[in-house]
Amino acid sequence: RILVTGALGQIGSELVEKLRNLYGRENVLSTDIRKPEEIDGHFEVLDVMESKRMYELAKQFNADTFIHLAALLSATAEKNPLLAWNLNMGGLMNALEVSRELNLQFFSPSSIGAFGPSTPKDNTPQDTLQRPTTMYGVNKVAGELLCDYYFMRFGVDTRSVRFPGLISYVTPPGGGTTDYAVEIYYKAIEEGQYTSYIAEGTYMDMMYMPDALQAVVDLMEADPSNLKHRNAFNISAMSFEPSQIAAEIKKHIPTFEMTYEVDPVRQKIADSWPNSIDSSAAIEEWGFKVEYDLEKMTVDMLGKLKTKLR
Ligand code: VAH
Question: Which residues belong to any copy of the NAD-dependent epimerase/dehydratase domain (predicted)?
Answer without folding.
Answer: 2-235
